[in-house]
Amino acid sequence: MSKFLKFIVNLFLICAILVAAAIIVPPLVGVGTTVVDTQLMDTNLPMGSVTYSKDVYVTELKEGDQILDENDISTYVYTVKAVDTSNGTVTVRDTFDASAEEKQIQVLNSESRVILTIPYIGYVVYAMHSIEGIIILALAVLLIIILFILSELWRRDDDDEDDEDDEDDEDGDGYGRDIDGPIKY
C-alpha cells in the first residue's frame, strides 16, 4: 500500500509542477498566454483553456496558421485563409465553428500566431479568483501531504517486519552465518 500511495503522491506532484510551469514560465520567455478564466469573456475558446501565442509580422502569416485576435472586449482564434500584405488584411475563418463565414481582419503590423492551446489548466487560475477555490486547492495540497505521511508510516512498518524476520534466526547472527563454532579470522 505504501508504494501505491507514493505513486499517487508523485503523480500529483508531477502534475502540479507541470501545470504551474505551464502557467508561469511562458510569459517569462516572451510567449503570450491567454487564459479563459471567466464565463463573461467573449471568446470562441473553451472555458479553462490556456492559449500560447507569439507575435509575428503580417508578412510571416500564411494560409493555415491560427491567429489570436484580441481586443479589450473579446478574444478569438481564427484560421488564416488568405493574406493580403498590400493593405494589411487577413481573411480568416473561426477555428472552432466550421459553419462560420469567412471574414476579414485588419492587421497593422503584427498579429499573435497561436502556438498551442491546452484545455483545463486554466481552471487553476479560475480557482484562484475566489476564496472557495483557494480553500479547495489548499485542501488538495493538505490531502497530498497526509497521503505522503501515511505512505512513509506504512513503509516503516514494512521495514520493521523485515527486521523481525532477521531476529527470528535462532542459530545465526542475523546474517545467515552459523555461530555455534569458533569464529576464525
Give an overview of the whole structure.
The protein has helices spanning 2-28, 122-127, 131-167, and strands at residues 32-35, 42-43, 50-57, 66-70, 74-84, 89-94, 103-106, 110-118. The chain has 185 residues and is of the alpha+beta class. Strands 1, 2, 3, 4, 5, 6, 7 and 8 form an eight-stranded mixed β-sheet that branches. Helix 1 packs across helix 3.
Total count of helical runs of at least 4 residues: 3
The proportion of residues forming helix, as a percent range, comes to 25-40%
Radius of gyration: 29 Å
**Topology, number of strands:** 8
Q: Spans with pLDDT under 50 lasting ≥5 residues? A: none
As a percent range, the share of strand residues is 25-35%
Give average pLDDT, whole number.
Answer: 83
Helices and strands, in order, run as: HEEEEEEEEHH
The main β sheet shows up as:
8 strands, mixed
Silhouette: elongated
Span between termini: 44 Å
What is the structural class?
A: alpha+beta
